[in-house]
Amino acid sequence: MNLPGDAAPTLDKEEEFRARRDRINRVAKWTLPSLVMALSLLAWHLYVTLNDVPHYVLPGPVPVGKSIIEDWSLLWPAMLTTSRLTILALFLAVTGGVALAVAFTQSRWAEMSFFPYAVILQVTPVVAIAPLLQIYVDSAFFAALLCAWIVAFFPILSNTTTGLKSADHNLHDLFTIYGATRWQRLRYLAAPSALPYFLGGLRIAGGLALIGAVVAEFVIGRAGTGLGLASTLLEASYRFNFGRLYAALILISILGIGIFAITSLISHLMLRKWHESALTRES
Amino acid sequence: MTARHGRKPLLTMSRIEKTFRGETVALKDLNLTVNGGDFLSLLGPSGCGKSTALRLIAGLIHPTSGRLEWSGERDVGDLGIVFQEPTLMPWLTVAQNVWLPYRLRGKGFAEAQHDIESALELVGLSEFSDAHPRELSGGMKMRVSIARAMVTRPRLILLDEPFAALDEITRFKLNNDLLEMKAALGCTVIFVTHSVFESVFLSDRVIVMAARPGRVISELGIDTPYPRHADFRTSNEYAAHTRDVSNALGEAMGAAA
């Protein structure tokens, strides 16, 4: 424990060790994963070149890299399409999920009536719904959007509903004693209590929205819609263009990392002042 | 009932009964008059209904039968409450937490700032007004909770075993401070506790309760005048009072067994 008053001028052996370990950890946190990445690429490259693996079985990292550069004019619009689909689906999942969660907590009747159907929507594999959406929804983009939305929606709804109900009971009593209105209770007590739960749901939903978008493109995108990364990937596989297939796969993965990083950052920024999950322990 | 001299009744509870779910009798035939200016302790074993009595007074639950009457006008700022836990909102600063009773009445922070500052000063936490609760110790959090309960200068403050989870040193200090705050505010206090020593040190009326069913067994007056300081804890008078209260509590336990 470090008390503000007793600034220790000398570091004892243990503290010195700790400080050194922290310094090393800070560097290792970045260098070690990078090293693993470099070694894996090298191993991949060596495996492919030494064994003369044909490119239609496994292309080496060099042709894949080349493909990213050469097909960029094709891949970049595809990435934009998939990003747009994912982000729009996530946005709609957030607004819809939060709105429904608020409705559920405000009205017990609404929750009793509709929650089972939200669960059914969730447990039905979306791949099974996607072909139907393709039939019933004229616009392929909207069909894909609907498909990604269904997948991303549930974690937001479920987490936010739990969060809105998780406020301290004594605080609820306090609000009663001070004659708080429904709105005040929601705004000042339930909503802030739900924030960590919601943000946890957002991180899951971000990943799921991408999965939903990829599934939708696999199933619906083939029907000649604007091509996203997943449809590009599928098409490349039909043409035995494995360089492009891997390039598309890597870009999808980068998209996923990007979404995770952004949602994590949002979560960190909103919670860092008070929530245990965002605090770093001293000592 | 021994009314302190010249005090007017603030709250009268007559023949109050509370039964939960039609089977658990939490309180039976509770008669109690709380006078303005009282420091009244409800003392008893767990299950004696002392917290139920407090919740009835707070209006959080309603009696199954019997009457609970307030004298004079009553509005939302008239009651402050402190729970066993500090019950702060972790996402707000200390000052914003204390602001809550005013905020719920639509009073802006700037408008309430003077009252918030003086409440924090009274509990000795002026320097921590911008800190978040997690940065404070258990005792300090409890002080914030007390500051929140008294920021509106209520007529009555209810405390439900507020110091039970604190260490003895902190508890003694908070006991002393609580008496000073009460004197400064001139309010009425109802204090729920299961500590004989705490009830004798703090209050001028100790109501001893027994369990199953919850009921009042006896009332003892602690006549030692305020201000009471730390030396009261070691006086013969204090020892005599604690002996009396302990005996009464022993009877309550015997009655329950």
Subunit organisation of the chains: heterodimer
Number of helices of chain A: 10
The largest interface is:
A-B, 21 and 21 residues
Q: Any idea of the CATH class of chain A?
A: Mainly Alpha
Secondary structure: number of strands of chain A: 0
Low-confidence stretches of chain A: none
- What is the succession of H and E elements of chain B? EEEHEEHHHEHEHEEH
Estimate the global geometry of chain B from the Cα principal axes: globular
Our count of helices of chain B gives: 7
- First-last Cα distance of chain A: 6 Å
The CATH architecture of chain A can be named as Orthogonal Bundle
Averaging pLDDT over every residue of chain B, what do you get? 88
Key attributes of the depicted protein:
heterodimer; A: 283 residues; mainly alpha; MetI-like fold; 10 helices; B: 257 residues; alpha/beta; Rossmann fold; 3-stranded antiparallel beta sheet; 7 helices; globular
Question: What does this entry look like structurally?
Answer:
The complex is a heterodimer of chains A (283) and B (257). The model of chain A has no long low-confidence stretch (mean pLDDT 87). The termini of chain A are close together. Chain A has helices at 13-50, 61-70, 72-106, 108-123, 126-136, 140-164, 169-177, 182-219, 229-238, 242-271. Chain A is mainly α and 283 residues long. Chain A has one domain (63-278): Orthogonal Bundle (MetI-like fold). Chain B is of the alpha/beta class. Chain B has a single domain (9-256), classed as Rossmann fold. Chain B has 7 helices and 9 strands, in the order E-E-E-H-E-E-H-H-H-E-H-E-H-E-E-H. In chain B, the strands form 2 sheets. A 6-stranded mixed beta sheet of chain B has the order 5-6-7-3-8-9, with helices on both faces. A 3-stranded antiparallel beta sheet of chain B has the order 2-1-4, covered by helices on one side. In chain B, helix 2 (94-103) packs across helix 3 and helix 2 packs parallel to helix 4 (138-150). Chain B is globular and about 50 Å long. The mean pLDDT of chain B is 88.
